Structures are given as structure tokens and as C-alpha cells.
Amino acid sequence: MLKRILLILIMLLALIAVAGLWLWNDYQGYLIKPLGLLEKQVFEVEKGTNYSKLLNKLESISNGINKPYMKLYGRQSGLAGKIKAGIYELDQNTTPTSFLATVTSGQSLSFQFTIIEGSTFQELKQRIGENPHLIDDISSLSVKEVKKKLDIAQHPEGMFLAETYSFDKNSLASSLLLRAHATLEKELTKAWEASRSHTLPYKTPYEALIMASIVEKETGKVEERPIISGVFVRRLNKKMRLQTDPTVIYGMGDNYKGNIRRSDLRKPTPYNTYVIPALPPTPIAMVGREAIVAALNPADGKALYFVAKGDGSHYFSATLKEHNNAVRKYQLNRKNNYRSSP
């Protein structure tokens, strides 16, 4: 009888051992298999989320998870109590181990916002208001309120460097703009100090920024920017009016409907460079680094005029006669956005 009981006990222990080994192997295999996420997605862990709530949220976006295994791994690894709030990116290859490594890393996903070269401050405010990841404390403010909030002395037009900025979710829009403004000042100061020319018609870096904004609006071709800058610099040095359409359009504001009439060219505004014999009072758009460098490093040459060729590039002329011939040539197939100087 005793032998029978002992045999039964041995068999039970063997079964338990086999079952335990199977469970252990199954558990280990589960940890390295994908969780079954249906698609690549952003996973947000809110502040104060505990491990149980984390697993519930994970379960809701997958084909189902093994909670006992997940809880065991959380305790075994010690990661269950190390969850960090943030926004993380998960995909179809995410496993239980990589999931916990991700949500305890603190390496929250960042977002990007691009200030577009040639865009106006009004357009920038609109895009800020449309961004779902920024806390918008800017778009509803007046120019005066923006200047006060950001502690900027000048009009905010052109005061933020056009490039792409990374930010965390729920960052203040004002914080992003402060970074963009600081970056602009750094780049402008660097370019101003690097320029050794004594023939530039600028008294301050701000005037160079105004020129950079005009160059930015006149061409999207990097190689043309120093050439166009050279045209405008020579015109200013010769006391000639810039006669550039983008400044007229900016001065027209909401009255601009896609075309410039002759009466618009004659109408006095602070920005109408067909009328004023100088730079406009502020930039007319956001600028990138290349436009700043071009404004402070104009190309040498004799050209005083240019006309759009219709393919994004321009034809440059040294004399009015040559320019008028070019206008006649390129006006034949010109588009609505045709511009020439003068």
C-alpha cells in the first residue's frame, strides 16, 4: 500500500513538474511574441497610471493579452512600478518585453512643427491653432499681446526662424515660438558679424532681416537668393525704389485678391516699395537661414532688374531696355503670379 501511495505521489510530482515546465516555456515564449497590435499607433501613458490600468489600456488596442503572464513579468522584472508618463510609439512587432521597456524608458515621443519659409505671421498663427498637439496660447492674441507675451520689441512678422522644431505633446505654442525667435536672433547675429562688406545699405541687423524676407518671397531657388539680394542692394545704394510686388501684396493685406492692379502700385502704404524709396518698416514673411545669408552676402554683378520666367527662375538685366525686352518675352506665357522688378 505504501509503495502504491509513493508511486502515485511520484507520478503527481512528475505531472506537476511537466506542467510547470510547460507553463514556464509558454511564459517565456509569450514574452518574445508580438502582442497582436492591429497597426502602428501612438500609446499615451497618463500621469498616475498604475500597472493594472496600463494593462487594461494595452488590452483595448490589441487582440488580447495574457494578463497573468504580464503581471508576472512586471513583478519579476521589477518594471511594474517604474512606469513613466509619456507618449510612446508601438507597432505590430511590439512584444511584452519591448512594451514594458518602452513605457518605463521615459523617452516620450516628440512632435514636429515647421515654420514655413515665406509664410506670414498670420498664417503661422492659423497653423498653431490647427495643431492638435500644441497648447494654443497664441492664435487668439493681437500683435500687441503677442509682443508682450514673447517680450519682443518689434512686430512679430519675420521674427521666428523658418525651420522644423520638435516638441512634446501639450507644449505651449508660446514656448515653441520663443525657441524659434532665439534661433532667429542667433542666426541673424552670426550672419551680421560674419559680413565684412562696407557697401551694404543696412544700419541694423533688423534691416538685413527685412531684406531677407523680401528675398525669401521673391524666389524659392536657393541659388538665386544672393543674386536677387544683389539686385536690391544695388538699387538701394543707387537710391532707386525696390519696386518689388511681394511688399505691395503684404501692404494690401486682406484687400489682395490674387492680382495687383496699377492703382495698387500707386497707392501709398508703408510697404509699397513702388512708392517708398527705402525698405518697408518690417519683414514681410518668415525667413530661413539661406535668405539671411543671402541678404548679408549679395552676389556681385550689374543687374538692377529681374523678371520671372514662368518656371520658377528669373531673368536678370543690367539696363531698363534689356529688362523691358525680357518682360515682353516672358510675359507672353506668364502666369497670374508673374512678378518683375521694377
Mean pLDDT: 89
Measure the end-to-end span.
Answer: 115 Å
- Side-by-side strand order of the widest sheet: 8-7-9
Strand % is: 5-15%
Approximate shape: elongated
Structural class, judged by helices and strands?
A: mainly alpha
Number of domains: 3
DSSP, total strands: 9
Number of discrete helical segments: 13
- Low-confidence runs of at least 5 consecutive residues: 335-339
Q: State the helicity in percent bands.
A: 40-55%
> Major sheet, described briefly?
3 strands, antiparallel
Order of helices and strands: HEHHEHEHEHEEHHHHHHEEHE
Radius of gyration: 32 Å
In short:
The chain has 342 residues and is mostly helical. Helix content is 46%, strand content 10%.
Explain what you see:
There is one protein chain. With 342 residues, the chain is mainly α. It folds into three domains: 36-108, Endolytic murein transglycosylase (Dna Ligase, domain 1), CATH 3.30.1490.480; 110-186, no CATH class; 195-341, no CATH class. Helix content is 46%, strand content 10%. It has 13 helices and nine strands. It has helices at residues 2-31, 51-60, 67-77, 96-103, 121-130, 143-150, 173-194, 205-218, 225-237, 245-252, 262-266, 289-296, 320-331; strands at 41-45, 86-90, 110-114, 134-135, 164-168, 171-172, 305-308, 314-317, 340-341. The strands form four sheets. Strands 8-7-9 form a three-stranded antiparallel sheet, with helices on one face. A hairpin with a 5-residue loop joins strand 7 and strand 8. Helix 8 crosses helix 12. The longest helix is centred in the N-terminal third of the chain and has 30 residues, at 2-31. It is elongated and about 125 Å long. The N and C termini lie far apart (115 Å). It comes from Neptuniibacter caesariensis. The record marks 218 as: Important for catalytic activity. InterPro entries: MLTG-like. Belongs to the transglycosylase MltG family. GO terms for molecular function: lytic endotransglycosylase activity.
